[in-house]
Amino acid sequence: xxxxxxxxxxxxxxxxVTAADERIFLRELERYVETGRPRLVLDCSGLRRMDDAAIxxxxxxLEEAMKRRGDVKLAALCxxxxxxxxxxxxxxxxxxxxxxxxxxxxxxERPRVEFPAFDGDFGDEAESAA
Length: 130
What we know:
The chain is built from five helices and four strands. The chain is of the alpha/beta class.
């Protein structure tokens, strides 16, 4: 049995995002999301300001990837940018990694599913059902 890994593409987010920058960035990104299930890492290390335009760009990238059953992960966000994502409510939509390398590596790892510990006690609900 042979398993092939889909490539992970890394794109550097511009330092400051304008409407023109967003159009150019998304046009370039289209080449990489045409394949099924794109796996993207957005390197935000150069992003100086997380304003509405930058948040809109990140959400647009996520939308395009999700249309094709793909995913977008963010890397190297400065603390202020991550805080702004939190204030906007968009923080919960992304996995964020300290470095681009860690974000890329995360695609190669199997997701860990953790189940709550079961102590054998079903509580009052099981007794009332009986």
